[in-house]
């Protein structure tokens, strides 16, 4: 047993937690849409074909915002294919995922689903095969009240009121050679700037996200962000970050420390954005949108060459089954996001259903929670108010990839309204139980731990599957004198005034 001393004081604040930090992502990829949120023949489907059992789980998971429709998919997508009468919509080849896209679900259906799910829609435009014109038309279709070609087209499709979509991604991963319409930083910067200008002229109230790097290991990382921001600075509000984490070589200790890598990634992008701010003598700061993050068995996914396979509708792609270890990594990544809440204002776990997702479905059958569901649901439900800057003194252990790392990482939020502090903690040690030693200062004197919820398992490879859907679930531990974090565990501790 070792100890983690955590100092919590109301004088040390990071900043307000933006609820958009708890976003997710639905791409037209694999069985995310068709066979995921949408399955008309399913016993629970509503009159529009959306599964209500899945919707119920989405609500329980609690994302606040959902990015749509891609991802790589968006870079060759015609948004016009997804509006108007469904029977008139074309079937297309989706070049990103070698699939047949029927367009039975498009903007209209997804916007209605988002409303039911009570999530804000974050829309991505195609800057791969298309550009300024398609982007500004889409904003007009979505956000202009009426009396113009595109807004009246929306009205003729039965949607009288504008959707009022606020957040727009200017393309997706345009730095990546695998992207349809891949561009150099200057090429992308130019088209992003011109699209942003036109989109803002249609609706000055929108917020725009420029593409950052596809991951922090891209050869152009750093240079890409600097160039893109130099081109677009005054017209965009956010720069995106994407990164997926995985245990490539069976090195669990390093994998469990993945959030240290996320921390570094975030601080590097902040440094680059602020460097450009200084260089341009700008008064505004660019915020970060970590709009794709998760654990993904990507090596396995990419080892399969499907380039000559038949074109299928909604093939099963990237349907990862997540272990307890992976849930603890997801929890620690959420901790990293909370600890950078002053600059990371939006984030999306990628994705939501079936594809690298916290929710899995069987066609015609059940839907269930993966292990990674629980840390996300905890943070989305409980993190609120202001993020506190914790001072943590914990034991350390050696990892092959990151050197010495802390056994425990933690974040905390304080809701002044309820007076409650919630500490989120991941014990990343493979073998050490860690006892919490709380030091409460300032207005928090007199607080104490009142509740403790933990996600762990004797077998850290345990998962939830079709035949054992509730194999891994969190449990509530009674708080007596002490709070202890088991090895490889995700913990939520609630503090209140005694
Ligand atoms: O989320 C899966 C894919 O990962 C997205 O389409 C792409 O943006 C990223 O490379």
Q: What can be said about this structure in brief?
A:
With 498 residues, this protein is α/β, with parallel strands linked by helices. It has 11 helices and 25 strands. It is globular and about 65 Å long.
Bin the helical content: 25-40%
Provide the number of structural domains: 2
Between the first and last Cα atoms, what is the distance in angstroms? 27 Å
The biggest sheet, with number of strands, parallel, antiparallel or mixed sense and barrel status, is: 8 strands, parallel, barrel
The DSSP helix count reads: 11
Name the average pLDDT. 97
CATH superfamily (homologous) name of the largest domain: Glycosidases
**Order of strands across the main sheet:** 3-4-7-8-9-10-11-12
From the spread of the alpha carbons, the general shape counts as globular
CATH class of the largest domain: Alpha Beta
Strand-residue proportion: 25-35%
CATH topology of the largest domain: TIM Barrel
Task: Give the class from helix and strand content and strand pairing.
Answer: alpha/beta
Bound molecules: alpha-L-arabinofuranose
Low-confidence blocks of residues: none
- Compute the gyration radius: what is it? 22 Å
Quaternary state reads single chain
Overview of the molecule:
- It is a single chain.
- With 498 residues, the protein is α/β, with parallel strands linked by helices.
- The protein has helices spanning 52-61, 107-117, 132-143, 149-156, 185-202, 223-232, 252-256, 258-279, 298-302, 324-339, 373-382; strands at residues 2-9, 13-16, 23-25, 65-68, 92-94, 99-101, 120-125, 167-170, 207-210, 238-245, 287-295, 344-350, 359-361, 367-369, 386-388, 391-393, 396-399, 403-406, 408-415, 420-427, 434-441, 447-455, 475-477, 484-485, 489-497.
- The strands form 6 sheets. It has an 8-stranded parallel β-barrel with strand order 3-4-7-8-9-10-11-12, surrounded by 6 helices. The protein has a 7-stranded antiparallel β-sheet with strand order 2-15-19-20-25-22-23, covered by helices on one side. A 4-stranded mixed β-sheet has the order 16-1-21-24, with no helix packed on it.
- Helix 3 (132-143) runs parallel beside helix 5 (185-202).
- The two termini are 27 Å apart.
- The mean pLDDT is 97.
- It binds alpha-L-arabinofuranose.
- Residues 27, 29, 70-72, 172-173, 214, 292, 350-351 line the site of alpha-L-arabinofuranose.
């Amino acid at each position: 047993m070792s100890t983690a001393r955590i100092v919590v004081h109301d004088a040390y604040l990071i900043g307000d937690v933006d609820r958009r930090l708890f976003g997710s992502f639905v791409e037209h990829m694999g069985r995310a849409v068709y066979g995921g949120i949408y399955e008309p023949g399913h016993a629970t489907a509503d009159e529009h074909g959306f599964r209500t059992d899945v919707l119920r789980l989405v609500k329980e998971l609690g994302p606040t915002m959902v990015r749509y429709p891609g991802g790589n998919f968006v870079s060759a997508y015609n948004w016009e294919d997804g509006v108007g009468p469904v029977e008139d919509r074309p079937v297309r080849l989706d070049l990103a995922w070698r699939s047949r896209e029927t367009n039975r679900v498009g903007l209209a259906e997804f916007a209605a689903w988002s409303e039911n799910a009570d999530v804000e829609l974050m829309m991505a435009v195609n800057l791969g095969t298309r550009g300024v014109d398609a982007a500004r038309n889409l904003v007009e279709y979505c956000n202009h009240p009426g009396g113009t070609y595109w807004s009246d087209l929306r009205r003729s499709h039965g949607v009288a009121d504008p959707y009022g979509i606020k957040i727009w991604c200017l393309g997706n991963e345009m730095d990546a050679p695998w992207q349809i319409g891949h561009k150099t930083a200057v090429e992308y910067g130019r088209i992003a700037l011109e699209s942003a200008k036109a989109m803002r002229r249609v609706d000055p109230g929108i917020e725009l996200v420029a593409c950052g790097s596809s991951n922090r290991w891209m050869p152009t990382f750093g240079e890409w962000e600097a160039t893109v921001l130099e081109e677009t600075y005054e017209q965009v509000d956010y720069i995106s970050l994407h990164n997926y984490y995985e245990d490539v070589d069976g090195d669990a200790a390093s994998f469990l420390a993945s959030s240290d890598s996320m921390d570094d990634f975030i601080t590097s992008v902040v440094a680059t954005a602020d460097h450009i701010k200084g260089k341009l003598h700008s008064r505004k700061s660019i915020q970060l949108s970590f709009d794709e993050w998760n654990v993904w068995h990507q090596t396995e996914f990419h080892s399969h060459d499907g380039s000559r396979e038949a074109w299928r509708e909604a093939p099963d792609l990237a349907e990862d089954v997540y272990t307890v270890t992976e849930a603890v990594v997801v929890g620690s990544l959420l901790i990293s996001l909370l600890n950078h809440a002053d600059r990371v204002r939006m984030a999306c776990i990628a994705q939501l259903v079936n594809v690298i997702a916290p929710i899995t479905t069987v066609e015609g059958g059940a839907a269930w929670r993966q292990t990674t569901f629980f840390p996300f649901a905890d943070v989305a439900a409980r993190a609120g108010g202001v993020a506190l800057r914790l001072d943590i003194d914990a034991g350390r252990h050696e990892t092959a990839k990151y050197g010495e790392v802390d056994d425990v990482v933690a974040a905390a939020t304080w809701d002044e309204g309820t007076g409650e502090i919630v500490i989120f903690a991941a014990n990343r040690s493979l073998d050490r139980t860690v006892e919490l030693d709380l030091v409460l200062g300032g207005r928090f004197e007199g607080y104490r731990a009142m509740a403790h919820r933990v996600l762990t398992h004797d077998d850290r490879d345990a998962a939830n599957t079709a035949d054992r859907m509730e194999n891994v679930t969190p449990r509530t531990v009674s708080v007596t004198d002490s709070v202890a974090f088991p090895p490889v565990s995700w913990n939520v501790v609630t503090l209140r005034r005694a």
